Structures are given as structure tokens and as C-alpha cells.
Model the fold of this input.
Amino acid sequence: MPPFRIMPDPVPPDNTRTALRLAFFYGAIFAMIGIHVPFWPVWLAAKGLGPTEIGVVIAASVGIKVISNPLIAHIADRRGQRRPIIVGLAVLAFASFTLFAGTDHFWPILLVSILFFAVWSPIMPLGESLAMLSGPGGKQGGRQEGEQGGAKELDYGRVRLWGSLTFIATAVGTGYFLTDGSTDIIFWVLLSSLALVIVVTLALPPTQAPASTETRFAAFTVIRVPQFGLFLIATALIQASHSVYYGFGTLNWKAQGYSETVIGFLWAEGVIAEIILFAFGAHLVRRLGPAKLILLGGVAGAVRWSVTGTAGGLGVLIIMQALHAFTFAATHLGAIYFISRRVPQAVSASAQSLYSAVVMGLALGLAMLASGNLYGLYGAGAYQAMAVMAALGSIVAVFILRRRATE
Done:
């Protein structure tokens, strides 16, 4: 076991160029997300959509990935390609988003939203697959070596943190430009960010995986990978436990009397915490392994949500927000490396897409729907249900560790 190091390991010189290309990719993707997540509902409201209609549009946008992500990933695995498909999807996303310029009513906006997210959503999991394939340990036959400490892997966390940084920058910057301004700027800034995505995808590493020779749908092959089902359940429970926080965290804090400035700081603290963990991600993966990181995320979630659900004061909230480094970032980091090490490269795109569709799509979407009812009935008490979900996720992660130990 290597001793603990204060500073994260440097990126090997021969991998710096690849890491830089991927950092630009994550930066561009999350620049778009940093504008879209907080401000797209504002644009929809300006188009005359009511709260229920906005909710339907957002739910449909999330739900379509359950269908489109595995289908696109299946094509990518059959061809063994990543970059050409990502570039094509980025161009289609830009083209479909331009259609919003001529839409003004609920049904046209809903249809264009489904079309846009059908081609936008698969980009991220395909990029995750390409990132893990592009590292030194991502070469053919390098999975088991990387897991046992023999082959080096791409320092995913230090590449991914640039996405979190640009998320903060674009969310704050767009909010500044929107002050006393027209909501039309939201559309044009988003369109510009999509143009940037096309540019950075053209510079992605041309890494290829072995083409899948499976005749069945690739997602079915992934599900048969040992422990993959347990992995999906564990990560789905832990990540979906964020639903009350994502949907009603601001409302809850305002009800407790905190100002918008304090609330903004609390949200920013959570993102900063995940950036710090990503910076030390490679060391944590080597020291703990993917399954233990997922377990750590579940335990942290049980603590975080049970305490956040009480009026413990600002000092307690600041400590709990720091746990976002584990509830989200450690869980996600563990998930990416679990897939990289346990799933054959020939179906790695399908594995990433299945993770995205089930965990960040289906599970989180259903939890968001339930969280509305829970918060309406119990207020801050809804966090206790989230604590139970995170605890259950950690229990499932223990089973992954126990089965792993017997192999």
C-alpha cells in the first residue's frame, strides 16, 4: 500500500496531451450544462410555459436518455469507434437546438427538446468511455492490470474537475449577463456553447476500442458482467438520494431564513468540494478501489442527508456541504473506474451509457418526482428518506466488496 501523499500525482508527460484534449472536452460539455441547468427553465417560462409544462419538458429531456444512450452506445461498440460518433452527435445537437429559435408553444418545444436530448445525452457517456480508453491503462488487455496496480490509468479525476470549474464559471457568468437583460440571451449563449462543443470534439483523441462481435444488444452483454447489477443498484440509490437537495435545497434553506448570498455560497461549496476530491482521485482509487469509494459515498450520504434535514445552524450546513465531495464525486469516480476495470472494452460505451441512463436518468428522474411529494408533505423531513436511500446504497456496495473478496 503506497503511503499517503499530500499532493496528487502529476500527469505523466506522455499522457499530458491526451489529458489536455479531454479537459477541454469536459470543460465545453459542462460549460453548456452550467448554462442550461439553472437558466433553461427561465427561457421556457418566458415562452409562456407554466410550472407543470416546464416539469414535463425537463422530465422528457431526462427520460429520453434511457432510450437513446444505449442505442447510440450499441452502435459505437459494434464499430469500436468513439470520436467520429461524438462529433456527429455534437453537430446534430447544434442543428436541433437551432429549432428552438422558431418554437413558442408547449408541444413544439417538447418535441424539439426530445429531439435535442436524444442526440445530446449520449455524448457524455461516450466521452467517458473514450477518456478511460485513452489512458495508458486503457490499452487492450490493460483492465485487469490496472485494477491490480500493474498498468497505469488516466487520472480521470484531474481531467474531469475542469468540467466542474467551467460549470461554476458559466453559471455565474450567465447570471451576471442576465441581470436586467433579455432572456433571449440564454438561447444564444447556449447555441454558442454547443458550437464550442463541436470544436473540442474534433480534437478528441482518436482512440478506438476492439469492435464488439456480439450479436445481441450490447447492453444485455453488460448486464451479464459479474456484479454489474449490484453496481447499478448501489450507485442509483446513492446518486438518486441527491434529489431533494437538487430540487428543493434552495427552497428549504430560504424557509430556514438563509439569504440568497449564503445559499449561493453553500451551492458553490459543494462544487468546490467535488473539484478537490477529483484532484486527488487517482490516489484515492489506488488506495481504496472503486467499490470502497462507492461505499464511502453511501455512508457520507446517510450522514449528510440525515443532518441536513435538521435545523442545525449554518456551521453544521457548511460541514455537510463539504460531504458533497463524497456523496457525489467519490461515488461517480468509483463508478467510472468500476466500469473501466470490470467491463470489457468492446462494450465499454454501452456500460457507460447504461450507467448514465439508469443512474443519472431513470433513478434520479423517479426520485425527483417522489421528492416533490415528500417535500410537500414533510418539508426538510424529506431528507430523511434520502438518508435511507444512501444507506441502502452503501449496504449494496458492501455486497459488491464481499463478492469481490471471494473471487
Remarks:
- The CA atoms of residues 7 and 126 lie 30 Å apart.
- The chain is about 75% helix and 0% strand.
- The mean pLDDT is 87.
- The radius of gyration is 20 Å.
